[in-house]
Each structure stands twice: as C-alpha cells, then as structure tokens.
Amino acid sequence: MDVDMHRTHTIMADLYGALPRQGPGSADCTRRAFSMLGSLPERPLVLDVGCGTGAQTLELARLTDGYIVALDVFDWALNRLSEQIVERGLAGRVSTTKQSMMEMDFEAETFDLIWSEGALYIMGFENALKTCRPLLKPGGFLAASELCWFRDDPPGEAREFFKTGYPDMKSVADNVRLITGSGYELFGHFHLPDRAWWDDYYTPMRQTLPALRQKYKGSPDAIAMFDDCDLEMAIHTKYAAWYGYEFFVCRRPATMGA
Length: 258
Ligand SMILES: C[S@@+](CC[C@H](N)C(=O)[O-])C[C@H]1O[C@@H](n2cnc3c(N)ncnc32)[C@H](O)[C@@H]1O
What we know:
The protein is of the alpha/beta class. It has helices at residues 3-16, 27-35, 55-63, 75-87, 125-132, 156-165, 172-181, 195-215, 220-239; strands at 45-49, 67-72, 94-98, 111-117, 136-149, 170-171, 185-191, 243-251. Strands 1, 2, 3, 4, 5, 6, 7 and 8 form an eight-stranded mixed beta sheet that branches. α6 (156-165) links the parallel β5 (136-149) and β6. α2 crosses α3 and α8 (195-215) runs antiparallel to α9. The chain is globular. The structure holds S-adenosylmethionine.
C-alpha cells in the first residue's frame, strides 16, 4: 500500500471506525428485515457483504444459530469486528474475510442468506444482484438496504449532490423491477426510518468531527473528507423526504433450474 493510501485509511479509521455503524441502519431494521425472510435452515450459512465494524453482523449472530462470514476490504473495520467476535465468544460462528465484493471467490450455491446493509451500491445494485444470485443456494435469501429516490421530483441541489455521490441511484419501483427482472422473488421491502440515519451514524459523526478537525488541522485531504461529511448531513437534513434507504428482502427461487 502506498503512503497516500495508508494515510487515507488512517483518516477513515479515525472517522468511521469511531462510529457504531459506517452507514445508516439500526438493530431494529436488521431484525425487521430478518423477520421478513422465509424459513431458513437451523444453522444457515450467511454472508455479510460490506460488513464494516459489524453492527449488523453481530445482530445476525443473535438472530440465527448459523455461521456468518463477514466481508469487507478495510483492515481497520475487520480488526474491530474481530475484537468483538472474540469478546462475545462468537469465534466458532462468525469469521471475517478481507475481500472485495467485486472479486468474491466463493463457490456457487454456498450461502443460505446474503446480507448487505448500505454497501451494494459500491458494485452497483444491478451488478450486485447478478453477482449474489449464483452464490445463493436455490431458495436462498438476499436482504440488502439500498439508497433510493423516494420521490421523482428531487430539488436541484439534491439531484446535483447525487450526480456525483451516486449517479446510478434509482427509485424504489425501479429497484423492485430490477430485483424481479434479475431472477429473484421479492418478499417485501421497507424504508429505513430517519432515526436509523441519525442515532448510530450522523449524530455520533457530528460529535466526532470537531476533535478530528483539530487533530488533522493543516491536512487538506482530511479536512476535505470532513467537509464532505458535513455536506452529506446538510443535504440529508434538507432532503430526507426525497431519498433514503430501502431494505429489500428477496429470494432466489427454489425450483430446479431457477
Ligand atoms: C456504508 S458502509 C456500511 C457498513 C455496514 N454494513 C453498516 O451498515 O454499518 C459500506 C462498507 O462497504 C465497505 N466496502 C467498500 N468497498 C468495498 C469493496 N470493494 N468490497 C467490500 N466491502 C467494501 C466499506 O469498508 C464499508 O464498511
């Protein structure tokens, strides 16, 4: 890893590693999505894609008696999750793997459930649907939260922001079509409530930023990253009615050849 990349990872670890989550979500939402799944084997094999420091991984470990593989690209996130796994005595059931979701090397039809909160946008939702399907056993489930437009008339400032932030962002209805068109049965979907943005993500981020600005003062790259966070929170404060996360729960059909 070159020096610049190492430095970026250090800043990210200081910023995101200090938060309970690395994106919007909550234990309630994880539980709600989990309750929408059809029946799972007694000990399902679960993959958590883009696990971060693992808030939802640990919740999944409470919800199932299965085995969970938590995947992310950043050591700082995986190390923090690994500490939690050991502290909670989960080492026999939860493991981490450092892999890119773009190059996952699992065998076909491995998982009973693929979970991903706030992360599939990194490979693009459509691409993620294509990539995950063959990794699921027939009848296996995919549960993922995805950033969506909730209304089709976003104000110019919000539209401009996501032109750079997530140009491929779609409406909920378009994503529903994408899911069914990609060979999944949709079991249900719901909006993440606004407190799922704030309680474990934006509020602690807002509390952390002043000390980080102090620590990194004179470092334009770090300050630019913190400015982006402030802008993102300001956009959300103004335009939360127009966009948000939708949790989708779907299944690869169980029928032969599907
Ligand atoms: C918005 S965060 C969500 C983290 C966690 N699921 C949560 O809800 O708190 C996105 C996660 O994707 C991870 N990530 C970024 N690029 C990735 C890649 N190519 N493959 C796997 N994970 C990646 C980030 O490290 C980060 O943990």
